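HUMAN: Can I see a protein plus its fold?

ASSISTANT:
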Amino acid sequence: MIELRFGLCLTVQRRRDKTYILLAGELDVSNVSVLIDAFGTIPSEAQAGVVVDISKLDFLGACGINAIVIGAARFSLSLCPLIVTGANPLQHRTLIASGVGSLLASSPVPNDRLQAPLSA
């Protein structure tokens, strides 16, 4: 399933016993319902996990973080872990500061755009 809405591209792929949600663009209040709806289409039973890949996400708003928390809570009821991968350093810090760092798969993915000097 691929869905485009208001700057967000969401792709859901099933590989073996895991479901991958790939996000690209911006996740904000205008399109967060797409992610919440995608979580609702994934059966929580008999899953080894749900992986949310945010490596192509340029903006992650507070409502996007909230949607990830809602998804994690939904899948945790059936002992199906939700894991966030591909966070750049800024997203990584934001997720940790938001109290959802436990959902992160690993350390942040280097992002050259964040390390470039700011121009005046």
Notes: The longest helix spans residues 62-76. The chain has one domain: 2-112.
